[in-house]
Write a structure and sequence with these properties.
387 residues, alpha/beta, Rossmann fold, Ribosomal Protein S8, Chain: A, domain 1, 3 domains, 6-stranded parallel β-sheet, 5-stranded parallel β-sheet, 15% strand, globular, oxidoreductase, EC 1.1.1.290, NAD, D-iso_2-hydroxyacid_DH_PdxB, PdxB_dimer_sf
Length: 387
């Protein structure tokens, strides 16, 4: 089995070398001679799997992407070439949900809102798939008031309660977690278009951590010339990487499409792809993600002397603080003469971050059954209480 894998897939060598002759490649620089004899191709979103690429790889038995999205796959070409494919759906769901929580808590700090104040706000989650469900779980753990909007799932056997988009547009915080769908019964291109944007007001927060194009940025800017608009947290932008810098002044926080870029999120994509290849080959998996992930130092908060709600925000920011990424992004954009290149470089060179579950927090003994500890655990943190 000859396996080609993207050298930006963490732990790929450890995984794929167990299954055969594994060789790395850099995105955009696949050795065509090697590709011609490859049995499996493991990619990330920076490699476009097109009819032209497939024509150079007659031996391919499987193509897998270590990403949740698959816009880079020409599905018709894969079908025509009779090459099975695998998508690591949900690999970055936890990472994106934690990005959103960091944004919400940073928004609360800007507005001088405490956790009790946040619970008075209604959060609308548009898209209740992998990411939306991960966010729902964390919102529920924090006792937040939220609603879900997902027309395709509402028409399915999903038993959760769903609301329509107009209901979400009346929420205090609107979180977008949908794929970019151009047509069909439920398209999401410009889901927040001119008509929807006109229904929004200056007291709202809109978070787009899914795909650029879900918000009609031109319509937003047109309305912004007329009246005050909601503040935005944008991680996904139209026309990436050549984004419109005119949107930046309307962003409370802005980042270069890195919401899902945790070590766990990327590693999970690698291991899901590895599992797919094992399944294709009829082999058992010989290595797991937990075996290779580095551990974090334990955080000892016993000196805090209490376990109150301020620890929730502190715990979130200790693992991911959106404000830091926002500062780096704004500074880079302000100095850039080539927005597209800068955006791409920021993504490529993004500093590694970890998910909440990687962190163990030591708390005081009397907080063993405290609601705050339960909320920290609901967010994913490992908590210990000492005697």
């Amino acid at each position: 089995m000859k396996i080609l894998y993207d050298d930006n897939m963490p732990f790929a060598e450890q995984c794929f070398s167990l299954l055969g002759d594994a060789m790395p490649f850099s995105a955009g620089d696949i050795n065509l001679e090697v590709l011609g004899s490859a049995d499996a191709l493991m990619v990330r979103s920076t490699t476009k799997v097109t009819a032209e690429l497939l024509a150079q790889a007659p031996e391919l038995q499987l193509v897998a992407t270590a990403t949740a999205g698959f816009d880079h796959f020409d599905l018709a070409a894969l079908q025509a070439a009779q090459v099975p494919y695998y998508v690591s759906a949900g690999c970055n769901a936890i990472a994106v949900a934690e990005y959103v929580l960091s944004g919400i808590f940073a928004y609360a700090e800007k507005r001088q809102l405490n956790l009790a104040d946040l619970r008075k706000l209604r959060i609308g989650v548009v898209g209740a798939g992998n990411v939306g469900s991960a966010l729902e779980s964390k919102l529920r753990a924090l006792l937040f008031d939220y609603c879900l909007c997902d027309p395709p799932l509402a028409e399915s056997s999903d038993t959760r309660e769903f609301v329509d988009l107009d209901t979400v547009l009346g929420c205090d915080i609107i979180c977008l977690h949908v794929p970019l769908i151009e047509d069909g019964k439920h398209p999401t291109r410009h889901l927040l278009g001119a008509n929807q944007i006109q229904q929004l007001n200056a007291n709202q927060l809109v978070i787009n951590a899914c795909r650029g194009g879900v918000i009609d940025e031109s319509a937003f800017l047109t309305q912004a010339e007329i009246r005050k608009m909601p503040v935005l947290i944008l991680d996904a932008w139209e026309n990436e990487p050549a984004i419109n810098r005119a949107m930046l002044p309307h962003c409370l926080f802005a980042t270069p499409h890195i919401a899902g870029h945790t070590l766990e999120g990327k590693a999970r994509g690698t291991f899901m792809s590895y599992g797919a290849l094992c399944n294709h080959m009829g082999r058992d998996e010989e290595i797991s993600m937990n075996q290779v992930l580095p551990s974090l130092p334990v955080v000892d908060w016993r000196s805090e002397g209490k376990c109150d709600e301020s620890l929730i925000g502190a715990a979130i920011f200790s693992l991911y603080d959106i404000r830091q990424d926002d500062r780096i992004f704004r500074q880079a954009m302000a100095q850039s003469s080539d927005v597209g290149r800068t955006f791409t470089q920021l993504r490529k060179n993004y500093a590694q971050r970890r998910e909440f579950a990687a962190q163990t927090i030591v708390l005081n003994e009397y907080s063993a059954d405290d609601p705050i500890r339960q909320q920290l655990q609901g967010l994913g943190f490992d908590t210990l209480c000492t005697e």
